[in-house]
Amino acid sequence: MISLTSYLILAAILLVLGIAIIISKRNAIAMLIGVEFILNAAALNLVAFSRHGVGALSGQTAALFVIVLAAAEAVVALAIFLNFYHTIATVDIDRGDQLRG
Amino acid sequence: MLEAAIFFLFAAVAVVAGLAILLSTNIVRMAYWLIAMLISVAGLYFLMGAYFLGVIQILVYVGGVAVLLVFGVMLTSRQLAPNLRPGPLEALWLMVVTAVLLVGLVLSILRVHLEQSTLAATNSVADIGHNLLGEFLGPFELVSVLLLVALLGAAYLARPKTPVLGTQQRKGAAR
Fold this sequence. Notes:
heterodimer, A: mainly alpha, 0% strand
């Protein structure tokens, strides 16, 4: 039996990898890949908790919601990036400074 | 110890995929490494006995989200792709931030005493369905509204700003 701790550590590593990808990449689509890493780490945590401890199936159901939200987020983010690309002809997020942000 | 071997196999694939994405400069290869990570996480779900969730992971993520990302890569230009490699100062900051975060997370996980009461795998699809329409009915309805809003919002955002050539010609002909 794999212990809960090893699943949690794996999820922590995936979370940190996702954050590192978001920080290091300038391409908007690569940042979206980092977000997918973070969401998968969270879902892995939920499933591991539902297997090893509290709330028999609540963790799995919540992980289902995480997957749905990730899909919706990816669709809307890609639509925004396409709009961005049509406006300034690149997906480099550092070039999107028209609002002086 | 077959289970441990399978766990370490999938975990290694997921972590190697993350590192490969971090070091890669090719956006298409990043998308394929993302697919490798998603499939290995699905394998971990199977290992934990969450069979339905593993299938949904492959169906929705690999079949939907990853393909959507590849389409996004194809629809945006390759020649104008930004420089994907961070500068030395950025890389230093990146390493400091991620190392501190990782060490903190792992230490706190190891320090917490977690009860190891493994539950029997009660995970038939019927149970998940009852859970979804019973205890999680409110979130379920909210998510259905959210999916509708995401669909409309994506279609609205991604529509072409300038009128397509065909409609312009038709307008010219009408005049």
